[in-house]
Write a structure and sequence with these properties.
The chain is of the alpha/beta class. The strands form four sheets. Strands 10-11-13-14-15-16-17-18 form an eight-stranded mixed β-barrel, surrounded by six helices. A five-stranded mixed β-sheet has the order 4-5-3-8-9, with helices on both faces. The protein contains 25 helices and 18 strands. The chain starts with 5 loop residues before the first helix and ends in a 13-residue tail after the last helix. Helix 1 packs parallel to helix 8 and helix 19 packs parallel to helix 20. It is elongated and about 120 Å long. The protein has three domains: 213 residues; 144 residues, Alpha-Beta Plaits; 236 residues, TIM Barrel (Alpha-Beta Barrel), CATH 3.20.20. The structure holds ligand C2E and calcium ion (2 copies). The site of ligand C2E has 23 residues, from strand 11, helix 16, helix 17 and strand 15.
């Protein structure tokens, strides 16, 4: 048989081109990338051996039988190895756990080992082929075994990939399946039609090209603007970090990018960002660079050099402007820099992405020129942050936030006439988390709208089911976050919910804080709409901000809640602002609630001052609905012991 090697030549050219692009593209040190590289190199070796052995077979009379066996066996062994690498690559991409991956690889490779054993035995058995200096190369009676082995490996990898379909992207799935199908087609053509043309490997090179384009092209993970790797690449990189790494992690952010864009225009700012990227590439050529978004970079430096040296280098470069390549417009950026200590990198790999990203945001908040070193203490804070976020998300998706009620005592009626609804989060894994933590988190990540809706709905449900009216509760105070007040459909939504539970809105008092007044017009509209339905409003936490009182008093408020800090400062003799604000609000005909009433002394004092309501641990902490109902039943109708008589 005379071999035609034309296809193999085309294949090797294609594969070398792919290898060239792959290596110069600078792929990330991820397992799947390493296996792709090995598979690619393995396949190139296979094609080279295929060409060499075919030429030798065509000219067998010039070579010794031993040499012919040697090269042919080398070819078949390499062929087996390439398929083993292809299989390992598919398994690696499938995103299984480490253990599952190892088992799947070991079991799956058994056919390859059997195939190799058969090849090694072939000089003695003639099973796959025979070759000699005199008569050349001939297929053995078991030649088709090769194709059976190829078929088994391809089918195995298709099974693995399909089975883990939900763990991989559509593109990865299609890429791997197409690879398998093209390989099988190539092998089939060679068996059935082009017996003496080396077509299988040509098919594999086409399939490799598809894999490269669909999954292995480093550009898929790159940010278009800067040409650096993007956030997804960083996550994958961190996912596969080894136990101990010698990488140094820096976060770098350019300040006020959106303002810069308004001043200089998108195009110029993007060009300057590219200039920053180029500079980083030159100065951190042995590391990995990521562009997350909004002027934020992550630098992973391979050389562990002096961090101060790195810092100075970056800071001094940022002192001069960034020239566009065309020299069109040069822009001066100000930067913030963070460094994550190795100790942190090595102890909290699972949270590393959040730590790096949060460290950058924190530094940006602190402002230009900030340099923050993330050490274990900050790591604790950040990990807490991750926990709070996890618990919050879980509570929202399970609708498992609880609503507690804290009694509010009316001085005029000498009994509890209202209560404040307060959210409680008790996570099955992380335990109790305080509202100061999870409400803040929800406000940061935007889930406060959904959370607020759930809280309002639960509150209405509890008011209805426990007949709060009959317990002597005139209305319940519900906290509204500033973000909720900016919602155009807030009033509509609250009205709909209250209708659903048949709780008239005069049973609800909504607490807003002065930060809710950023969009005054929107706030007015929503408030007036709700007031039309019977709701009333309190201004919460008075005294914690820097209120523009004149402005606040234009809001349609019924109640002002004076913050506990004002009461406590008064009790400690530090300030008598309390008496002044009480007087002022009384003159405005606003009802006054004072919070943080912890002792009888405080209660008597406030009664004398003429406040309308008191709330605090002296009366009760926030109670779950059962305890709250019990509390109301024992304290209502009024009991002597609860009364606080005016002294004057
Ligand atoms: P806030 O609206 O000022 O709620 C009053 C807080 O003071 C409550 O803390 C309450 O338990 C606490 N407190 C009441 N009396 C006393 C006292 O005598 N002494 C002391 N030391 N503390 C007292 P809590 O429940 O931890 O809530 C903290 C903050 O979380 C609330 O402050 C509010 O801003 C927010 N929050 C709680 N629930 C919700 C909610 O459902 N929605 C929104 N948007 N925010 C909520
Ligand atoms: Ca409140
Ligand atoms: Ca308050």
């Amino acid at each position: 048989m005379i071999w035609n090697i034309d296809f193999a030549i085309a294949a090797i050219i294609a594969e070398i081109v792919i290898l060239f692009f792959y290596v110069t593209g600078g792929y990330l040190p991820l397992k799947r990338n390493k296996y792709f590289f090995r598979f690619l190199v393995g396949e190139i070796i296979v094609v080279i051996l295929d060409i060499v052995s075919s030429i030798m077979h065509n000219n067998h009379q010039y070579y010794s039988t031993f040499m012919l066996y040697l090269i042919t066996i080398a070819y078949f062994m390499a062929f087996g190895c390439a398929f083993a690498l292809y299989y390992i690559y598919s398994v690696t991409i499938s995103g299984m756990s480490n253990r599952a991956r190892k088992i799947t690889i070991h079991v799956g490779l058994i056919p390859v080992f059997i195939f190799m054993a058969i090849i090694l035995a072939t000089p003695f058995t003639g099973f796959i082929f025979t070759v000699s200096s005199d008569s050349g190369y001939h297929r053995g009676f078991g030649y088709e075994t090769i194709y059976i082995a190829v078929f088994i490996m391809v089918v195995e990898s298709i099974i693995v990939v399909s089975h883990n379909r939900y763990r991989i992207t559509r593109m990865q799935y299609l890429g791997l399946i197409t690879f398998g199908l093209i390989t099988i087609c190539g092998a089939a053509l060679q068996i059935l039609i082009y017996k003496n043309i080396l077509i299988t490997n040509a098919a594999i090179s086409v399939a490799l090209l598809i894999l490269y384009l669909s999954l292995q092209n480093p550009d898929l993970l790159r940010d278009r603007k800067t040409g650096l790797y993007g956030g997804e690449a960083f996550i994958q990189f961190v996912d596969e970090l080894d136990e101990q790494t010698d990488y140094s992690f820096y976060g770098l952010a350019i300040e006020n990018l959106s303002v810069m864009k308004k001043v200089y225009g998108d195009r110029n700012v993007n060009n300057a960002l590219r200039a920053v990227s180029r500079w980083l590439k030159v100065n951190f050529y042995s590391g990995y660079l990521y562009y997350i978004n909004n002027g934020r970079f992550i630098i992973v430096d391979k050389k562990v050099r002096d961090t101060d040296e790195v810092r100075l280098k970056i800071e001094s470069r940022f002192k001069s402007p960034w020239e566009d390549r065309s020299g069109y417009e040069s822009i001066q950026f100000t930067e913030v820099l963070t460094y994550i200590t190795n100790e942190v990198v090595n102890t909290s790999k699972s949270a590393l992405t959040s730590i790096v990203i949060k460290s950058i945001s924190d530094a940006v908040k602190k402002g230009s020129g900030t340099y923050v070193v993330i050490n274990s203490k900050m790591e604790d804070e950040i990990q807490r942050d991750v926990i709070v976020e996890k618990a919050l998300n879980r509570a929202i998706s399970n609708n498992s936030i609880e609503v507690y009620f804290q009694p509010i005592f009316s001085v005029a009626e000498q009994r509890v006439t209202s209560a404040e609804a307060l959210a409680r989060l008790n996570d099955k894994e992380f335990g109790f988390i305080s509202p100061d933590e999870f409400i803040k988190k929800a406000e940061e990540n935007g889930r406060i709208i959904e959370l607020g809706r759930q809280i309002f709905e639960k509150t209405c449900n509890l008011i209805k089911n426990n007949n709060f009216g009959d317990l002597g509760i005139d209305y319940v105070e519900v906290n509204l976050s500033p973000a909720q007040c900016l919602q155009e459909n807030l009033a509509n939504e609250l009205v709909n919910i209250s209708n659903k539970y048949k709780v008239p809105l005069y049973r609800i008092n909504l607490e807003i804080t002065e930060t809710a007044t950023v969009d005054q017009d929107m706030l007015y509209t929503q408030m007036n709409q709700l007031i039309d339905y019977g709701a009333s409003f309190s201004l919460d936490d008075f005294g914690t901000g820097f209120s523009n009182i004149v402005n606040l008093l234009t809001l349609p408020l019924k109640i002002v809640k004076i913050d506990k800090s004002i009461l406590w400062a008064y009790m400690e003799g530090k300030s008598d602002i309390l008496t002044k604000v009480v007087e002022m609000f009384k003159n405005q005909n606003l009802e006054i609630v004072v919070e943080g009433v912890e002792t009888r002394e405080m209660a008597e004092l406030l009664t004398n001052m003429g406040v309308d309501y008191m709330q605090g641990f002296y009366f009760s902490k926030a109670l779950n609905v059962n305890d709250f109902c019990k509390y109301m039943m024992t304290n209502y109708p009024d009991k002597e012991s609860v009364k606080i008589q005016r002294i004057k």
